[in-house]
Amino acid sequence: SPAFDFYSNLLKDTFWLSQEVPQGTKEFQRWILALFGPTIASVGVLMFYLVKAGIKHREPGPWNSLLIVTAIWAPGDIGISLMHNFWLHVLVDVVAMLAIVPPALILRARAIKLQQRI
């Protein structure tokens, strides 16, 4: 697909400096990305249910979990991407963090206030 070709070319330019990619590497890339897709999808489903539970139960626990998971994932992913000078992943990670962290912090604070009223 064009998206895979774009991504594959970025990987090639980063790791092989625009040289020819070693034999078998593209097959490995397709395989590892095929595994990565369902992993990301399953994490998305878990995050959806954490958000749903946080809104429904108005407790800080789901928001804490979402923030902890993001605090584990983001620095590691960004650090590895920076070590390899792979800026596309850094950009995607920062956008994802901006989509996750501020709303989770706001909703966590609201849940704590609600619990304090009870």
3D structure, described in words:
This protein is mainly alpha-helical and 118 residues long. Helix content is 86%, strand content 0%. The chain contains 4 helices and no strands. It has helices at 2-15, 25-57, 60-83, 87-117. Helix 2 (25-57) packs antiparallel against helix 3. The radius of gyration is 19 Å and the shape is elongated. The model has no long low-confidence stretch (mean pLDDT 88).
Task: Briefly say what this structure is.
The protein is an all-alpha fold and 118 residues long. Helix content is 86%, strand content 0%.
Walk me through the topology.
Layout: H1 2-15, H2 25-57, H3 60-83, H4 87-117
Q: Rg to the nearest angstrom? A: 19 Å
Find the structural class using helix and strand composition. mainly alpha
Question: Would you list the SSEs in sequence order as H and E?
Answer: HHHH
The largest sheet, given as strand count, sense and whether it forms a barrel, is:
none
Helix content: over 70%
**Averaged pLDDT:** 88
* Large-scale geometry: elongated
Low-confidence stretches are none
Number of strands: 0
What's the helix count? 4
Strand content: under 5%
Distance between the termini: 54 Å
